[in-house]
Design a protein that fits this description.
Length: about 190
């Protein structure tokens, strides 16, 4: 009959064998499930880098290396690619960059602002935010709203009619003709319908 000491000794001898068997199975599973960078994957656990994301316009996920700060970041679109949200772009800036309603990834300003394209002076508008001058006004009461340059010393958004009518009374038409020839941009707006 074996005493409690012998039973304990037998268990201690069998314990390392059991853990070695488990280690061998675990190691074999680990080698089968860890994929190298560039292989298709479904979850982070499948990759050696522990990072499974998209790395191009292709929607399929691939094992991808982590960043220097050990972050697993998905691929983002560079400037010029179409987008629908800021999070899609490397620059975190998705805005219109021309008259087209389509938005594109665009670089931010030096102050890290994401500024959309705005209409140049003379274009039709419905709000100040649409214009590069931030000034959308009517030239006359019966004319449509247009983007206009800011005027005056304080660069205010004032219609040219309000500035021109008092000047006509004060200085006469001859003086205004000289002003118009010196500032053709003012004259060009007078000729707009």
């Amino acid at each position: 009959m074996a005493g409690p000491g012998w039973t304990m000794l037998l268990l201690l001898l069998l314990l390392p064998l059991g853990s070695l068997v488990g280690y061998g199975l675990q190691k074999q599973q680990m080698n089968l499930s860890h994929k190298v960078i560039g292989e298709p994957c479904r979850s982070h656990d499948e990759c050696q880098s522990n990072c499974c994301t998209t790395n191009s316009l292709d929607p399929h996920t691939l094992c991808t290396p982590k960043t220097i700060l050990l972050q697993c970041l998905p691929w983002k679109k560079p400037n010029g690619y179409r987008c629908s949200d800021n999070s899609e772009c490397q620059s975190s800036c998705c805005v219109r960059n021309n008259k087209s309603p389509q938005e594109f990834c665009t670089s931010q300003t030096i102050f890290l602002q994401c500024v959309p394209w705005r209409k140049p002076n003379g274009n039709f508008c419905s709000s100040h935010q649409e214009c590069s001058s931030q000034c959308c006004i009517q030239l006359r009461e019966d004319s449509p709203f247009r983007c206009m340059p800011r005027t005056g010393i304080l660069a205010q958004c004032l219609p040219l009619d309000y500035l021109r009518l008092p000047l006509e009374r004060l200085v006469g038409q001859e003086h205004l003709a000289a002003v118009d020839s010196a500032h053709p941009e003012v004259t060009s707006f007078w000729q707009l319908p």
